[in-house]
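Quick note —
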Amino acid sequence: FCLSRGLGDVYKRQIVNHYYDKDQPLPIWAIFELISLGEFGTFVGCLDQNTRKKISKSVGIKVAYDRDGKLLPLIVYALKDLRNAVAHNNTIFDARFKTGKVSLRIAKCISAETGINNITFESIVDYVILISFMMKLLECQKKKIMAFIRLFEKDCEELRGKVSTSIFNTVVYTDTRTKLNLLKKYL
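Predicted structure written out below.
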């Protein structure tokens, strides 16, 4: 497994060594302390189809969008790139952090559930929609989801005041407000 470098590594190794030294099996929670988000996506993707489908259903993803149980790993892969960009303080507003194409299955599922069209993952607003969608599936409080969305809107308005309209419109697409209104209506 790839481990991030830093003080967290010492703690992670101590967890593993504790169980190893006592000749005890490593609990699954300890394994998830060790792996990256990408490795977690690979792990879920490698599970047999029935297990993937059960996990997907338990998360709240409708069977109609995930007959093979592969949607959740695709979502994890999409979020992995965003997480890595945020963790390394990279630019995220224009979604250039993507390491590959985000599956259309994700966009189709979200569009069908929310009524939001034109989800392309070429702009950060589509990731805000994905995160909000997943928060709702995971039964986060609506208040917390709305606070997340309001923070994004506040940041967009702050940016609007600092750059020209032409630059703003290349960073924050013109359909952002419509998408966010539909997202709030869905929630």
